[in-house]
Write a structure and sequence with these properties.
Blueprint lengths: L11 E10 L2 E2 L1 H9 L5 E3 L12 E3 L14 H20 L11 E4 L7 H10 L8 H8 L3 H6 L4 H10 L6 E3 L5 H14 L5 E8 L4 H9 L29 E9 H6 L6 E10 L12 H13 L9 E3 L6 H15 L6 E2 L2 H4 L6 H15 L1 E2 L22 E2 L4 E8 L3 E8 L3
Keywords: Transferase
Family: Belongs to the thiolase-like superfamily. Beta-ketoacyl-ACP synthases family.
Pathway: Lipid metabolism; fatty acid biosynthesis
């Protein structure tokens, strides 16, 4: 296998993967649940949902939360990122001594002091419990844990220390494209020869009251609370919003030359990446679809391929009327009248937001490895305006050599990855 691509860049291999999803902790459990068409969506049990329009989500049950209080979002992001990262590093057999030979690219959501913490400060303030800001500030004085927990780069710093990665860790957020962006940065670092390896993690832990209410106010969430397992309905006619979820994925990337030199098992290749932004609206894409279409075409061209070379598309497929309409437009523009199959794992695990692009990259690798297309479940009434092969309801055997994985974020942030079979 050539170790340089069509542009003379280092070929990027994946040698380790790790997963945490509402379907389970670990690659094997999550993938088995996905192929079985099992839903990980349930009623929210982590906090009261009285008077909320949406009362369902994809939740990850962490062992340390059993019988106790729930972790805050930053702590959940760090814990799930650590679980996925450890699994990926162990699978790769690289950095298992605590010295990983490359940088960490950490995709994660914005973090902040959350309502339970603020209310606790209000109760403690000067003993009066008035909730006035001077009293809350006084109660927070010396609380290093609050500061470090709400420090955006803190999670990446601590994970970099845990795994012994090289250089300053890069923490980033690009809305729903974040996980794919973290992988893109790793790809580019290796392609340029700046590093022979990279640890790329996307993690999300925002199933908490404030985030849920904010998305609800944007009218973005499904309110199909009566049957949580059937709430997420990408590409289906009765879709009416996405289901919030959480999880993490990690990928160990290496130059193919480095991986072959140490005899590592290569799980697949990251052949190309494309990104485009339209800055049109905080939640809606530009109606012309230029950025979505451009990101898809850019990724395929970056891989040195033509649209006809793509065997399957792992869709962004959130289940909102707007997203699925625009992704359909992109599919038609890029692939013409004979597009490849496209399915959405968000129908089963919900929208994992900052983790989605990384989780879907792992699922794309597994699709190639096992020759199985994961289904889009809850596909009861086809939408004639979509008209795509969405692999409805049941997984399907297929020969897959190249996958396009789409990640389209709020604010017009779009990243697409082309993933290929191992040599």
């Amino acid at each position: 296998m050539k170790t340089r691509d069509h542009l003379g860049r280092h070929v990027v291999a994946v040698t380790g993967i790790g997963l945490v999803t509402p379907l389970g902790i670990g690659v094997a459990e999550s993938w088995a649940g996905l192929l079985a068409g099992r839903s990980g969506i349930s009623r929210i049990t982590r906090f009261p949902t009285d008077h909320l329009r949406t009362t369902i989500a994809g939740q990850v049950d962490l062992p340390e939360e059993a019988g106790g209080s729930s972790l805050t979002s930053p702590a959940r992001v760090e814990r799930m990122g650590a679980l996925a990262g450890a699994e990926a590093i162990a699978a790769a057999g690289l950095g298992t001594d605590g010295h990983f030979p490359g940088p960490l690219f950490m995709g994660m959501p914005p973090v902040e002091v959350e309502w339970p913490q603020r209310l606790d400060l209000a109760r403690r303030g000067n003993g009066a419990g008035s909730g006035k800001y001077p009293e809350m500030i006084a109660a927070a004085t010396g609380r290093v844990d609050l500061f470090e927990g709400a420090l955006f780069g803190g999670v990446g710093e601590r994970l970099a220390d845990r795994f012994g990665t090289q250089g300053a860790p890069i923490s980033l957020t690009t809305a729903c494209a974040t996980g794919a962006s973290s992988i893109q940065l790793g790809i580019e670092a290796i392609q340029r020869g700046e590093s022979t390896a990279a640890l790329c993690i996307g993690a999300e832990g925002s199933v908490q009251p404030e985030a849920l209410i904010r998305f609800s106010l944007l009218s973005a969430l499904s309110t199909r609370n009566e049957d949580p397992a059937k709430a997420s309905r990408p590409f289906e006619k009765t879709r009416e919003g996405f289901v919030m979820s959480e999880g993490a994925a990690a990928l160990v990337l290496e130059s193919l030359e480095s991986a072959e030199a140490r005899g590592a098992k290569v799980l697949g290749l990251l052949l190309g990446a494309g990104e485009r932004a339209d800055s049109f609206h905080r939640t809606r894409s530009n109606p012309d679809g230029a950025a979505i279409i451009g990101a898809m075409r850019a990724a395929i061209a970056d891989a040195g391929l033509e649209p006809g070379d793509i065997d399957y598309v792992n869709g962004h497929g959130t289940g909102t009327p707007e997203n699925d309409k625009m992704e359909t437009l992109g599919m038609r523009a890029v692939f013409g009248e004979s597009p490849p199959p496209i399915s959405s794992n968000k129908s089963m695990i919900g929208h994992t937001l900052s983790a989605a692009g990384a989780i879907e990259a792992v699922f794309s690798l597994l699709t190639i490895r096992d020759g199985m297309l994961p289904p889009t479940i809850n596909h009861e009434t086809p939408d004639p305006a979509v008209g795509l092969d969405v692999v409805p309801n049941v997984a399907r055997a297929a020969k897959v050599s190249r996958v396009l994985s789409n990640s389209f974020g709020f604010g017009g942030q779009n990243v697409c990855l082309v993933i290929g079979a191992a040599p």
